[in-house]
From TrEMBL:
<dbReference type="InterPro" id="IPR016163">
    <property type="entry name" value="Ald_DH_C"/>
</dbReference>
<dbReference type="Pfam" id="PF00171">
    <property type="entry name" value="Aldedh"/>
</dbReference>
<protein>
    <submittedName>
        <fullName>Aldehyde dehydrogenase family protein</fullName>
    </submittedName>
</protein>
<dbReference type="InterPro" id="IPR050740">
    <property type="entry name" value="Aldehyde_DH_Superfamily"/>
</dbReference>
<keyword id="KW-0560">Oxidoreductase</keyword>
<dbReference type="InterPro" id="IPR016161">
    <property type="entry name" value="Ald_DH/histidinol_DH"/>
</dbReference>
<dbReference type="InterPro" id="IPR015590">
    <property type="entry name" value="Aldehyde_DH_dom"/>
</dbReference>
<feature type="domain" description="Aldehyde dehydrogenase">
    <location>
        <begin position="48"/>
        <end position="485"/>
    </location>
</feature>
<dbReference type="InterPro" id="IPR016162">
    <property type="entry name" value="Ald_DH_N"/>
</dbReference>
Length: 515
């Protein structure tokens, strides 16, 4: 069967649609930055290609530290005006923004497909979660802000590329509801056009948003250490997050630093393999390129044969490929678990790690083939990696101790509960974990020993929406916890001497209702 790109989804068609929706933000040959209340043709556009098929797409207009400093000062000016804007007006402007996002939902989603390779279902889901999440805060914000005030300066957002809408722009709207201006650095790996369109629609409604592109080495010191910044919100890896934490150490600024951890799924005294098989396939959504993915299974050795009987068919059923490939023009876009990785460099790096792990003694239990992918004839496939599963990667391998951020599972066998706990706590803190066991009491006891912020019993965990708290232990999180009222409290001032719930150098605090 020969496949084709679904008509109407071409990159050029998408970009022209963005230009028609927000001509102030998109020129024919480049995308603009937004600061000081207007769109600016500053910065040098960087070459960018889509991970989907290597098509050249709009690249981020990279500015330097001087421009970033000017943008921060302008955002501080906006913040001083916005923080005294009545709450009802803030709510009206945010509500108008999410209504605009809803109107242009499919354009935002198609940008996510081309820029970061999300399958259509997951791309639309990302936009929908941003809209529904902000709508929930619109109804709750008055109670959440009672007795509280906006920060002294704008919130600086430095986020990873994988959830531009449901995490980054969602947070920016909540920050604005709380009375703050919001600054965002465009992730250099992807999401520029989606973020620019979302910010353009918000700026039209008067939200005090700043969006600038630039390298982390140039912009991060400005977006973290500038005295005008009221709070720093970071989502990314431990190396970069550690540098941000170092930069913040002597400043005393409110901060939210979400970092990676090796999220583990433990299997102990378990028999419901039909349920487990369905759960395994879902762990491959978006090629495990999310902070709450499960790339490590820790399995009781005596159950390994039954584990494989459920696991291997589930992995073999995973569908991946070009998110916009169809057999005929009338067909719906394909239902895929994942498309490409974020870029060819990441695909090459992950493939090398797998090969090195096998050379070091890991046993390849499953290796998919690019031939199984849904692809266009002759298309570029540099960013595609098929699912792979390795038994017992060597301790010298990054796949043993770090999150691969790709469709690569590792499986570790254990014989005792103590070994189970040691293997599940290999990364000094994680965001989520799961224990599959037939005994709920045993599951609860084991879960209490896992160093993950959320632990599921016979079910996966995620960030959660609305009033569900989210954070991390150990090196996976620094600063205030978020979710529900905690997200609002993290970006607002409460009573003098308030100790926000979170994971800080001198204390860790969990609200009583969540402990």
């Amino acid at each position: 069967m020969t496949l084709m790109l679904k008509p109407g989804t071409e990159w050029t068609t998408l970009y022209q649609r963005c230009r028609e929706i927000a001509p102030e933000a998109f020129a024919a040959e480049r995308v603009y930055n937004h600061w000081g209340g207007r769109w600016r043709a500053d910065g040098e556009p960087r070459l960018a290609v889509s991970p989907v098929d290597g098509t050249e797409i709009a690249g981020p207009p990279m500015v330097g530290a001087d421009t970033a400093e000017a943008a921060v000062r302008a955002a501080a000016d906006q913040h001083r005006a916005w923080r005294v804007t009545p709450l009802e007006e803030r709510r009206a402007r945010v509500r108008a923004t999410v209504e605009a996002w809803t109107e242009h939902r499919d354009t935002l989603a198609l940008a996510l497909v081309w820029e970061i390779g999300k399958p259509w279902r997951l791309a639309r889901q990302d936009v929908d979660r941003a809209v529904s999440g902000v709508e929930w805060y619109l109804e709750q914000i008055e109670d959440m802000m009672e007795g509280r005030a906006p920060l002294e300066g704008p919130v600086s957002n430095i986020a990873s590329w994988n959830y531009p809408m449901s995490v980054l722009t969602h947070a920016m709207c909540v920050q604005a509801l709380a009375g703050n201006a919001a600054i965002a650095k465009t992730p250099t790996d992807g999401g520029l056009v989606c973020l620019t369109l979302a910010v353009a629609l918000a700026a039209r409604e008067g939200l005090p948003f700043t969006l600038v592109s630039g390298g982390g080495r140039d912009l991060s010191p400005v977006l973290v250490r500038s005295p005008e910044i009221g709070c720093v919100s970071f989502i990314g890896g431990r190396d970069t997050g550690g540098q941000v934490a170092t930069d913040l150490a002597d400043l005393g600024k409110p901060h939210i630093l979400e970092q990676e951890g090796l999220n583990c799924w433990g299997v102990w005294e378990y028999s419901d393999w039909d349920t487990f098989a369905g759960q395994v396939r879902k762990t491959f959504d978006y090629a495990k390129q999310r902070c709450t993915a499960y790339p490590r299974f820790v399995v009781q050795r005596s159950l390994f044969d039954r584990f494989l009987g459920a696991y291997l068919p589930a992995v073999a059923s995973v569908r991946f490929g070009h998110p916009l490939a169809v057999a005929s023009a009338e067909d719906d876009l394909p239902e895929l678990d994942f498309g490409p990785l974020i870029n060819a460099a990441k695909a090459k790096d992950l493939t090398a790690q797998v090969s090195e792990a096998i050379a070091g003694g890991a046993v390849p239990l499953y290796r998919g083939s690019p031939d199984d992918a849904l692809l266009l004839p002759g298309q570029n496939t540099d960013a595609y990696v098929a699912p792979v599963s390795l038994l017992e990667p060597p301790r010298s391998s990054p796949l043993f101790h770090a999150e691969p951020f790709g469709p690569a599972d590792s499986i570790v066998l254990v014989d005792t509960e103590a070994e189970l706990m040691a293997a599940m706590n290999a990364s000094n803190g994680a965001l989520v974990s799961t224990i599959s066991t037939d005994d709920p009491d045993l599951g609860a006891r084991l879960a209490a020993e896992v160093r993950a912020f959320k632990v599921g019993i016979n079910k996966p965990r995620s960030r959660g929406d609305r009033d569900e708290m989210f954070g991390g232990w150990g090196a996976s999180w620094r600063g205030a916890f978020v979710g529900g009222k905690l997200l609002v409290h993290a970006v607002s001032r409460g009573p003098v001497g308030e100790r926000p719930p979170g994971n800080f150098p001198d204390y860790t605090l969990v609200p009583r209702e969540h402990s």
